[in-house]
Design a protein that fits this description.
Layout lengths: L19 E4 L5 H12 L3 E6 L3 H13 L4 E5 L5 H15 L2 E6 L14 H22 L3 E10 L12 H21 L5 E7 L5 H6 L1 H9 L9 H12 L11 E4 L9
Parallel strand pairs: 1-2, 1-4, 2-3, 4-5, 5-6, 6-7
Helix pairs in contact: 1-2, 1-8, 3-4, 4-5
GO molecular function, one term: oxidoreductase activity
Keywords: Oxidoreductase
Family: Belongs to the short-chain dehydrogenases/reductases (SDR) family.
């Protein structure tokens, strides 16, 4: 009996030249850093944003300064029609999709008894529905050796108080990733999750100094994570060569959060 070996993977690229990446929620924070990182590796990038056009245009300009190409596409991923339009506009501009990064998400720190239905639906809508809608629209067009990167959080495994709905949504993403990796494996499309720790974003700033202190003191490196830290993990999964044998996985990009005294 003969078996396939890694030799067949040798021609895979070590950068993203000729590739197209669609990054949702890319006007700020982690999404912004990922869009810029993938562009630095040669990808053409679609910068999706929900409302802040000026910030998205700034990301596009920064990518252009790197010598790559990018466009900004407005759309609320939680709305099915918007999600479909984001994918169709991507194809109209670049004709293909190789990397999909489902980064868009929202959070709320509220006790379950005080969580309104509206707040619940907003968190689940952007995180779960948005990931599903964009992925469903994009999957028929993702090329062989493509990569889908979804986002969970360390809180899905080690929850903080009053984040139950956020954790519910992120745990759903982890299960979706595992199932989708099996479904798309025959097409050589890799599907993985990144679980950031506490990262220096608007979300962390809104949570307050105590939250940021946990993100600093709780890591083995004694510093809070940066969006650029997470972008490096996304690049590893996006590049065909480095991420070739990784699928259905959840990578904790968290500086060892929990490995030190909280």
């Amino acid at each position: 009996m003969s078996y396939k070996t890694s030799a067949a993977l040798a021609p895979l690229q070590t950068d993203l030249q000729g590739k197209v990446a669609l990054v949702t929620g890319a006007s700020r924070g982690i999404g912004r850093a990922i869009a810029i990182k993938l562009a630095s590796l040669g990808a053409k990038v679609v910068v999706n944003y929900s409302s802040n056009k000026a910030a998205a245009d700034q990301v596009v300009a920064e990518i252009a300064s790197l010598g790559s190409e990018a466009i900004a596409i407005q759309g609320n991923v939680a709305i099915e029609e918007d999600a479909n339009n984001i994918v169709q506009e991507t194809l109209a501009s670049f004709n293909q999709i190789d990397v999909l990064v489902n980064n868009a998400g929202v959070s709320s720190s509220t006790a379950i008894t005080e969580t309104t239905t509206e707040a619940y639906r907003r968190i689940v809508g952007v995180t779960v529905d948005g990931t599903f809608f964009v992925t469903r629209a994009a999957v028929p067009h993702i090329k062989e050796n493509g990569s889908i990167i979804n986002f969970s959080s360390v809180m899905a495994r080690s929850p903080f108080p009053n984040y139950s709905v956020y954790v519910l949504a992120k745990a759903a993403i982890e299960g979706f990733t595992r199932a989708l990796s099996v479904e798309l494996g025959p097409r050589q499309i890799r599907v993985n999750t990144i679980s950031p720790g506490i990262t220096e974003t608007d979300m962390a700033a809104a949570a307050g100094d105590h939250f940021r202190a946990i993100g600093t003191n709780g890591t083995v490196f004694k510093r809070i994570g940066t969006p650029e830290d997470i972008a490096e993990t996304a690049a590893f999964l996006a590049v065909p060569r480095s991420g070739a044998w990784v699928t259905g996985s959840n990578i904790f990009s968290n500086g060892g959060l929990g490995g030190a005294s909280l």
